[in-house]
Design a protein that fits this description.
With 605 residues, the chain is an alpha/beta fold. It is built from twelve helices and 26 strands. α3 packs parallel to α5 and α6 packs parallel to α9. The termini are close together.
């Protein structure tokens, strides 16, 4: 067993989108596409009449009324949204609720659509795989417009307000002890209408942040900070936030104050200015270049130092004597040591706590274009693995060793790793390569499991002292793609890793600093009502009763039938101490008041 004490794992979570297979919320309205428009009463109208920017909307993003007339437009306009892929959705009965007066219509893969009242629908998704769902606001009364639409997963209508997180997602997520909110906060291109809309000097005020009541969080401002904080507080997670590059001082102050006031003091928070401000794919890099360099005459990358420094200064001021509750980290470019040095060494000493490169391994451009392209459809997963190993000897290993030497050792500060894992993508990125099938196959192949274990062995050589290296995997859940990368360590939340191999997920669990793992004996209808975390763990577990089921007892029994622990009180959240259990297999039994028993297997190595 590798020395797991040298590494500790967290994960980056996926941003919300209407086609993602990572669905963190039971209210799916949070992930719907932003409104597009349709002609009213036009049987030959386009799917999208492209008039959304001409309509009037409330502060919560809902239209003030529907239909709306637009000068010089032949047909009145109504609004629609879509979930283009429901591959991550469960089969079952969904509930739609809304406030106000008006009418909704639905189309797509649903069945048995029933209006049970003026403001409530139900429908079935028997086979969500490969389906889509479109929802149209047909009419909405100006004096009492449709608003607060909720599209609720099966069996969540009574609990979605107090338990907003998808229990299937949580049961997979909570193998980790920390999460990075970069994509949750839509950090890349933050606040832009599209990826090219970065060219404005205007900064955003705190009042312009994402609000809890906004109709969708799958937009350029991401998920509200209050939801991030709730996840951390409810499930004992440490967090990593990325401050938007166009945040005003007032915005940064408000953000820091919110986390300081409402995040449990026991939770550690890592704070970073934006994300990859050297990556020209992203609006923040272009913005920093224009308004930090061109407009001031400063050199690149020194021109970004004032933005990073200002961010740290404000967070430090808010946290004051409690600044040890946060980790102020500087993101750096792994492959370009000069850029890293010129950023980190120009910051004021003692105003930051760590620096953060990525820990990816990838294919080199030359190997990709020549060797693998020549193999084409004959390429195998083993070929991808061979060239990945060859590339990391000449590239990533040397880069990371140099980052450690020139920054970590030089300044005596720790390395954190904001993203990492496999980065096996084609060149050019976004084009279908001739060896596409091999890129897909390795994501399920033992070769990937071996790559991860070898890579983690190398990462351990970078650790020094008593504290383990923090590795934030990228990413969590996402489908395979040969063109754009296969970033998820799981492909879907429901993935049965015995049927569809998940080598990245298995390797990370194998290398975790834990000795106790807990799994369900069978997936009963009650299983997802209980979230067990952290899982795996070293010492104690917490059991959260997400549906407020009435509990009769909780017991842990050895495989020989000896009762090791027993609790007989009802609970919403229960903590069990396991550090003194000897190695072996145990059964965790949760018995409800109606004598139904939910059984989990507990294995201590």
């Amino acid at each position: 067993m590798p020395d797991s004490c040298k590494l500790i794992f967290g994960t980056n979570m996926g941003g919300l989108s209407d086609y993602a297979t990572e669905l963190p919320f039971v209210d799916l309205m949070h992930s719907c596409r932003t409104w597009y428009t349709k002609d009213d009463n036009n049987p030959n109208g386009a799917f999208d009449s492209e008039k959304a920017d001409k309509l009037t909307f409330r502060a919560d993003g809902y239209p003030t009324h529907i239909p709306q007339n637009i000068p010089n437009v032949s047909f009145p306009q109504k609004v629609a949204t879509i979930w283009a892929s429901t591959n991550g959705w469960q089969a079952g009965k969904y509930v739609v609720l809304f406030d106000g007066q008006g009418t909704l219509s639905f189309s797509g893969g649903l069945t048995n659509l029933i209006a049970t009242s003026a403001n409530r629908f139900t429908f079935d998704f028997d086979t969500p795989q490969g389906s889509m769902l479109e929802m149209v606001i047909e009419t909405s009364l100006a004096s009492n417009p449709i608003r607060n639409i909720r599209v609720l997963m099966p069996n969540t209508e009574s609990t979605y307000l107090t338990q907003p997180f998808n229990p299937i997602w949580l049961n997979k997520l909570l193998i980790f002890k920390s999460v990075r909110f970069m994509d949750w906060g839509q950090t890349n291109h933050w606040g832009q209408k599209n990826e090219y809309d970065w060219d404005s000097p205007t900064l955003f005020e705190w009042s312009e942040r994402q609000k809890l009541d906004y109709y969708t969080w799958a937009n350029p401002k991401g998920i509200p900070y209050e939801i991030m904080i709730k996840l951390l507080n409810d499930y004992n997670l440490d967090g990593w936030v990325c401050v938007p590059h166009r945040a005003s001082n007032n915005y940064i102050q408000g953000m820091a104050q919110l986390f300081y006031t409402t995040l449990n003091p026991e939770r550690k928070l890592t704070v970073e200015y934006s994300n990859e401000i050297w990556n020209w794919m992203f609006g923040q890099a272009n913005w920093c270049n224009k308004y930090g360099k061109i407009a001031t005459g400063k050199e690149w990358p020194e021109c970004v130092v004032p933005y990073i420094q200002n961010n740290f200064n404000i967070w430090t001021s808010v946290y004051g004597n409690n600044v040890n509750r946060i980790n102020r980290t500087v993101g750096v470019q792994t492959a370009w040591q000069d850029v890293s040095n010129r950023i980190v060494h120009n910051l004021t000493k003692n105003t930051f706590d760590s620096f953060a490169p990525a820990f990816y391994f990838a294919l080199s451009d030359e190997q990709d274009e020549i060797a693998l392209d020549n193999l084409g459809a004959n390429a195998k997963a083993s070929d991808i693995a061979y060239y990945a190993r060859k590339a990391w000897v000449n590239n990533e290993k040397k880069w990371l060793q140099e980052q450690k030497k020139q920054i970590a050792d030089s300044l005596n500060i720790p390395m954190f790793f904001y993203e990492g894992g496999q980065h096996l993508t084609p060149t050019p990125f976004g084009e279908e390569p001739t060896y596409a099938q091999a890129l897909l196959d390795i994501q399920r192949d033992t070769a990937m499991y071996n790559l991860y274990n070898e890579w983690f062995d190398f990462m351990r050589t970078l650790q020094k002292g008593s504290k383990p290296l923090q590795l934030m995997s990228f990413g969590f859940i996402g489908e395979r793609s040969a063109r754009y990368g296969s970033w998820g360590i799981l492909e879907t939340m429901q993935q049965d890793i015995n049927a569809i191999n998940a080598p990245k997920y298995k390797a990370i669990k194998q290398n975790m600093r834990n000795c106790i793992s807990i799994t369900s004996i069978e997936d009963t209808e009650y299983y997802n009502n209980f979230i067990i975390f952290p899982n795996p763990t070293c010492d104690e577990i917490h059991i959260k009763n997400t549906s407020n089921l009435e509990i009769n007892s909780v017991e842990i029994i050895s495989i020989e039938g000896k009762k090791m622990l027993s609790k007989t009180s009802n609970f919403e959240k229960l903590t069990l101490e396991l550090r003194d259990f000897v190695s072996g297999v145990y059964l965790l039994n949760i018995t409800l008041k109606n004598n139904i028993k939910i059984v989990f297997k507990v294995v201590k190595n």
